[in-house]
Amino acid sequence: MQGFGIGALNHNMEDGDKINAGYNAPSPGSTPENAINISSGVTVTAKMPARFIAAPWMLDAKSQLGMRETTGNNDGPDVVKYLKTVGLKPGAKSYWCGAFVNWTMNQAGINGRPENPDRALNWRNFGLSLNKPAYGSVGTLKRKGGGHVGFLVANDQDRPGWVIMLGGNQSDAVMYNSFPLRIMQFNYPTGYIPSYNLSSLSGIRKEIRMQ
């Protein structure tokens, strides 16, 4: 309810899975098990530590794309599972963008989450503060009456200076929306290597309060 965004994305788009992770890390859509070709022609499989994979928690975040509230009142089985991780129950005042980020990090086993993670702006105390956006970084912004939080995915190809976030409680759903970069802060889990090599997406609508 009163979600942060109106935009809809064709969730069959592959762009979100084509983001270049940089430093020869596997793409965000791959698993930690990676085949390595040896010069002799022999192929072996090696397990790459999660900290070297570009934002491994994004696999969990993207798995929730399209999840929606049931009645538009911050409710429904998916919203309930997010809210449960922050000790809240569904209802008119249970805004769940922070709960979605917390659920995602919990699923991925990321530690060091902030106190009261249901409050969007508390994620500004999470991990390391970045001076520019990185793929999978936790993006926060202030708005009238509070804030919003989600995961940075890409640059907005249609609007220079805007970025695409994957977040919860955006039009009562988990979806992509576009936000102005100038008002955002980005944080990243301690011990993981951020990738600043972002792709660009087009056709993503602005968040409603940014119209």
Following the backbone from N to C, one meets helices and strands in this order, namely: EEHHHEEEEEEE
Number of strands: 9
Return the average pLDDT rounded to an integer.
Answer: 81
Share of helix, binned: 10-25%
Distance between the ends: 19 Å
Largest sheet: 7 strands, mixed
Strand content: 25-35%
Structurally, the number of domains stands at 1
- As residue ranges, the low-confidence spans are 5-46
Tell me what the structure shows.
The chain has 211 residues and is α+β, with helices and mostly antiparallel strands. It contains 3 helices and 9 strands. It has one domain (15-210). Strands 3, 4, 5, 6, 7, 8 and 9 form a 7-stranded mixed beta sheet that branches. It has a two-stranded antiparallel ribbon with strand order 1-2. Helix 2 (77-84) crosses helix 3 (97-108). The protein is globular, with a radius of gyration of 17 Å. The chain starts with 32 loop residues before the first strand and ends in a 10-residue tail after the last strand.
